Amino acid sequence: MAVQDDISWFSLALQPQEPFARGGKTLAGADLRRWREQFRPFLNYVRRKEVVLALSGGGMNLPCHVGALKVLELLDIPVSHIYGTSAGAVVGGMYAAGMSTSELERMMLDIQSPDDLFGFAARYPRLRLVTNELRRKLLRIPPEQSGMYSRSQVEQYVSGVLMKYLGRVPTLGQLGMNFSSVALDVGTGEEGDYVSKKIFSNQSTPEVSLSDAVGSSMAIPGVFPPKKIDGRYHVDGGIVEQLPIGTAYDDWRRRRSLFRRRGLAIIAIDLAERGRTPSRSKLSHPVDLVIYAQTFRGRTITRHSLFRCHHPRGGCSIILIRPSGFGIDLHEIEKIPRAIFMAYERTIEQLSGSGFLDGTMEDLTQAKLELGITHP
């Protein structure tokens, strides 16, 4: 599908009165029914299954999650749980807290500069790096105040948005939808302590605030300082699970053994940049390059998790969606409107017709090659 140069007519707030209606034309009646009919194979496939969402990390590509979520809303997909890593934890957490996709879109469009998210001089990473090193050496700042960028600035932004739209910053136990975010617990800072994957959720950590859970999941090492919760430090969940399908699958298996739950459909929204080499500007920007490298590594982990978890005959199916049409670097805030639009388009394209599992099967094939598995 070609992308129009002028997308000023497009707004998630206008859906579903005009789902995928170019130029602002409203779809209704028979036109609207035909639009919905193209998703019949997908809807039949997930019918009678428990549906959960797995939202990946992806740095500044997080607006793509919003466009993809809107399509699932239009199709009336009932979601029982959201699992998020890094950028996916930010969007997924706000969505689980009760923000609509239209409100999430407005939040994204209100970002005028990377300084809004990351603090003063966000466009100048070398200056931030030197400043942080001087602070660390001269002031002996603790780990939770280190990092090239201020994680607290992002947390304050998230808290401000939640206050604006919901009137409060909820704890995980106060969310209206089940939500889990993935982080890496790197211990207390004492020698000999253990390191493990950490899941913040309604069930396991109901007293943790949403902003703290999100801050832990997106604390990219070297870019943001680690997040300290209950005396332990946490860093970005993308190190262990860029796309949290394994966490969703393991959670379902535990619940299934207790309650004999029905089959599971994991709709996995993956923002990984597939096969796209980094641009010269990305190579010269430390933050963009770190996120690119982490995403690249995460793609391999995702393929192996897909091989472990996608077993339709065993009750678990994974529908992989890749809504990101291009990469957004730290300084490219102006790309946000087009990213939301393209994610909306690409999600419709990937879920329509009978090929909604094509992305899953393609990555399964690649996983088998990487693991040296030659049999069907």
Account of the 3D structure:
This protein is α/β, with parallel strands linked by helices and 376 residues long. The protein has 14 helices and eight strands. Strands 1, 2, 3, 4, 5, 6, 7 and 8 form an eight-stranded mixed sheet that branches. A hairpin with a 2-residue loop joins strand 5 and strand 6. Helix 3 runs antiparallel to helix 5, helix 4 packs antiparallel against helix 9 and helix 8 runs antiparallel to helix 9. The longest helix is centred in the C-terminal third of the chain and has 24 residues. The radius of gyration is 20 Å and the shape is globular. It starts with 28 loop residues before the first helix and ends in a 5-residue tail after the last helix.
Question: What would you say about this model in short?
Answer:
This protein is α/β, with parallel strands linked by helices and 376 residues long. The chain has 14 helices and 8 strands. Helix content is 44%, strand content 12%.
Report the sheet-strand fraction: 5-15%
The overall pLDDT average reads: 84
Based on CA atoms alone, the radius of gyration comes out at 20 Å
Q: How would you spell out the order of helices and strands?
A: HHEHEHHHHHEEHEEHEHHEHH
User: What does the main sheet amount to?
Assistant: 8 strands, mixed
Please tally the β strands and state the result: 8
Gross morphology is globular
What percentage of residues falls in helices of 4 or more residues? 40-55%
Low-confidence parts lasting 5 or more residues at pLDDT below 50? none
Oligomeric status: single chain
The helix tally amounts to 14
The end-to-end distance, rounded to whole angstroms, is 33 Å
- Alpha-beta content class: alpha/beta
